[in-house]
Description:
By secondary structure, the chain is mostly beta strands. The chain is built from 4 helices and 36 strands. The strands form 5 sheets. The protein has a 22-stranded antiparallel barrel.
Amino acid sequence: MNAWVVGAALLWGLQGATAAAGETDPVEVLQPVRVVAAPVIEGNVVDDYGTQKTVVSEEQMEDLNAQDLQTALRRTPGVTISRYNPVGSFGGATGGALFVRGLGSSRPGAEIKTFVDGVPVYMSIWNHPLLDLLPIDPASAVEVYKSPQPHVFGNALAAVNLVPKTIREEGRQSAVKLAYGSYHTVAARGGHGARTGALDYYLAGAYRSSDGHRDHADGEMKNLYGRAGYRINSHWSVSAFTLWNDNYADDPGAEGAPAEELLGRYETRLWLLSATLENTFEGASGSVKIYRSGGEGDWLDQPTSTAGVQEDLFNDFLFYGLKAREEFHLWPGGRLLTGLDWERTEGDYRIEYSDGTEDDWDGHGFNILSPYAAVSQTFGDPRGFHVVPSAGVRFYDHTDFDSEWAPHAGLVVGVGKTELHASYARGVLYPGLDVVVFSEEVIPALADTWKNLDAEKLDHWEIGLTSPLGRWASVDVTAFYDEGSDRYVVVPPPPFPPVYDNVEDYRIRGIEATLTVYPSDSLSLFAGVSLLDPDPADLPYTPDCTVSLGGNWQFLHGWTLSVDGEYVDDMVVREQARRSTAVNTQTVGDYFLLNAKLSTRWRIRDLQATAFVAVENITDVDYEYLPGYPMPGTNVMAGITMAF
């Protein structure tokens, strides 16, 4: 708490010194913002097909002092996170992961897919996200799809998408941000962009590193990114986006573990390229995107079953493909959506042992062709009473597995902005390259049994209500029921040999509610709750109850206080193994975290500056996402952003 007081005093002194400088230099005092930004999330958005996504904007990420995807989404209702280190994620799974309404814990393989600008970014071989490949610096917003939505994405049961930044106003924009915090944590970011007539561009990069709160809890993240767009005419435009990053995170190990039991270092690298052609007409709009997303996820210095021998595992992943989408308005109130996704997935690995021996897997590739279509019709007045039924379907043609259909249907009934929405959707998730790797390298006795697998399915039902409460508040309530089937696992002997089979089912039901209140033009408050009831009960990272709280308060001239907190119930942890006899028995206790950020803004000529001090875990709570892996106590970060 002393660090909080000292930081606040420094900020006050800094603004005072700047005001004093105004006696010789012209200083412009920022005018108060009429309505402060919503805390925690931008909102829940219901589309014309009866489905919902949660959006976290750049403003919310700044208020949360988020350094990565986990901290950006840590208070989002329905999302649970896991990590080891203050900076960097150790190879996904419990070392750095996201879980959405109980989905995402399977390893290898995962129910959640992660995207940047709609382009897949995850480890193809083991078929799960690597969060360090997904820096939030290029993102103007993060979209969280908590259920199957076949008209938006395929081959996943839930999804997270990062929306790249775009310069939307005429002129030039440049910004630099520098911050330093506990555990020798350093964060730096800089960018420049402009919009001039038909041309816009944005180029930026970021660097973060930390020694960590424990021995071997260090990490580093570096990224560069850029976007350029050109408006050909009033109907057509083109754009290109690229992202490069290079990261590492070490495993600190369970408390008291000897050095030889530490799991080493996980390094990740990515290079993504995409190009998009967009069109906008009175009766139609859409886009065609081509992309390539490739990189590495290398697990170094792993202990092996042979004493004194370590291994380095070098994994290469590659995705390339095409996404085409067009929505037509061919009759009054009607929408006809058509789309086509084609994707190629590849991967291979090499293992080098410290005794000089090597092993490798030459890799494999999958193709998925996935056309889809949907239709919706608005009856009535969208500003008054209205009814919007919808229906659609996505078809999957896979090179190695049987074809599948994913239907969906929705209904929106509303009066003005108050809407009741209901939907059904089937999610389809194909086995990844992991089943080939296990059959050919890890457990050869599996032989070709992977070829007999079916895709996993998730039938999702949802009903919700969204409503403004005058001009001062808004509320969202959603109830859902998920029924998963055909989860693929290894069925061990007896009898011999082991086989792959689709034998596991599960069920998740829950309720989410959010309330955003604006008591005044300078104060906004947020509360969210998520209640989950999984079956089987040992489903990892599915707490019975989570409560999220947040608030933004603008006071005096240019001062803002942002506070966020979260209660997480006790929960089962560790990854959900792909083995029919696997049972998760490890748990962690409940906890409540409270964080705050105090910032002050001022302007000198064309320079706008924001200085801040942020304190995490203010009450110094002992908590962990995995037994033996304690998370940081009270820690502080201070920094400054300069925009010009």
